[in-house]
Amino acid sequence: MTQTCDAIVIGGGVIGLAIARALARDGLRVTVFERNARPGGEASWAAAGMLAPQAEADAPGPLFDLCLKSRSLYTDFAAALWEETRIDIELCPAGTLLVASQPEDVAALHAKLDWQTAAGCHAEWLSPSDVQNLEPLVRSHGALYLPDDWQVENRRLTQALIAAVAAAQVPIHCHSDGLTLCLEKGRVVGVEVRDERWSAPVVINAAGSWAAQMSANLLGLPARVIRPIRGQMVALQMPVSLRLRHVIRTSQVYLVPRRDQRLIIGATVEDVGYEKAVTAGGVCSLLSGALATAPPLAAASLIETWAGLRPLAIDHLPLIGETSLAGLWCATGHYRNGVLLTPITAEIIRCLVQQLPPPCEVAPFSPRRFSASAMVCSDATPPA
Fold it and tell me: Of 19, 51, 105, 140, most Cβ neighbours within 10 A?
């Protein structure tokens, strides 16, 4: 028996859910397939929720522009989700401090200040005493203050998007890890799971680190066009006497304070395949980096450790748009910017599917840039 809809989204993380929500708001009948027992349980749940295009970027370019555009959408995105679900995703505008933990970090941060200021972004150098006044727990040789690099509570964002697609009557089929694409006359026309078929003219692969597993052979992509990069994380419960107000980032770690007095510490960068184990070495490196940055954190309680897999494309750019196989679209490869790029990715896919002008330049992110004849597979080191 075949069921029909207008669009199928493969992957129930924040990217896939936001795409499903956007298409459903346009009146399309959308169905989501998620390989796990519940949606949003992979990178979306494991992330830290930083909206940090300036902190992440080492130079201007298409990805930096895309990240800035998506960051600019977040205030309206959060407000819309609140109206639809009454879930507060805890959009926090306190800003980010890029801390010079060693004297040699100062020159690199000043270089970042120069090019980002030239690009029209807000950035300000803070002396060690300025940092001490803003964040008494932090020891530094100065810091770059990025007032527009905010954060959200990514787990609440995930919950809000699940609630939003439910309100839009979008079904989510879990345990669909055996999914295959259905082809007719050289185009994708739906999916099949356990001998059940769903027909749709549009299929969107938003399967994150598992995206290439599903589609590589059909698209003629290199086997490792998308590969998982493990990130281990730690959460502390902060005593009332200890408080951080800003996201704090060094070259070793980041510290993300939550409203409930949790402090998220992350994240390792490990090319270990699909192994999500939390290791003694990973936790040790995170805690060492955190305590070197803010020694009073030694009094905080360790309450949670976890690991997630970030989807990294071999050229370090996301894949957003229609593939070389008609009817199949991709929205994956967002690596460390998945939460940040959620609203713009959903809007790009919505516009392209609906044959509307996209909200920004999308050519650099086209999945069609990958083909067996156009590139050589690379095992380049993932960016830290």
Answer: 19
Cis peptide before 267 (omega within 30 of 0): yes
Measured CA to CA, the distance from residue 264 to residue 257 in angstroms comes to 6
Token pair in block for residue 4? 């029909």
Q: In sequence order, what are the residues at sequence separation of 6 or more whose Cβ sits closer than 8 angstroms to the Cβ of residue 98?
A: 55, 109, 112, 143, 144, 145, 146, 249, 250
d(C-alpha 158, C-alpha 330), whole Å: 20
Residue 326 DSSP class: B
Reported pTM:
0.94
Characterize 9-35 residue by residue with b for buried, 16 or more Cβ atoms within 10 angstroms of its Cβ, and e for exposed: bbbbbbbbbbbbbbbbeeebebbbbbb
Placement of tokens 């939003």 in the chain: 164
154-200 pLDDT tens trace: 999 999 999 999 999 999 999 998 888 999 998 999 999 988 999 99
